[in-house]
Amino acid sequence: MILLIFMVVIGQNVSKMGALIANNTGVPINYFLVLAYVILLLRGFVWIHILSTIKLRVASPLISITYVLMLPFSHYIFGEEITETKMIGCFLITCGVIVVTLGEKASSGTVFE
Q1: Is 113 inside any structural domain?
Q2: Number of domains the chain contains
Q3: What's the rounded Cα separation, in Å, for the pair 50 and 24?
Q4: C-alpha angle with apex 39: 58 to 90, nearest 5 degrees?
Q5: Greater confidence, 101 or 21?
Q6: For 54-93, what is each residue's pLDDT tens digit?
């Protein structure tokens, strides 16, 4: 699951870099966009494997952690602003993921299929 989350974060950042380059150069295809598509394809295979081992009602909320990780990545790579509202949102997402995961583990004893 951690691999998938990092693939999403890295893929989104690579996509953004590719989009910025395409916008600045006027060339619609560049190495970053090709890499972003490769990551997207690989991410799909990893997601299918995860769905075969973890309950969907647990796996889907765990993907929300990507929003939390995107905040520092986008700040350090692209200089995007981190606001108090974004920090509160990330805190609430993290709390929600914890509640869903712990609730599933408490009700069925496991998050795995």
Answers
A1: no
A2: 1
A3: 37
A4: 45
A5: 21
A6: 888 888 888 999 999 999 999 999 999 999 999 999 999 9
At 80, the amino acid letter reads E
Q: How many residues does the chain have?
A: 113
Lookup: tokens for 64 = 């929300």
Tokens at 71, concatenated: 């905040």
- 63 to 38, 55, 58, 110: CA distances (angstroms): 19, 13, 9, 18
By C-alpha distance, which of 33, 26, 29, 28 is closest to 12? 33
The b/e string for 42-78 (b: 16+ C-beta within 10 A; e otherwise) is ebeeebeebeeebeeebbebbebbbebbbbebbeeee
User: Cβ contacts of residue 84 below 8 Å, gap of 6+?
Assistant: none
Determine contact, residues 18/39, Cβ cutoff 8 Å.
no
Residue 49 domain boundaries? 2-108
Question: Does some domain include residue 95?
Answer: yes
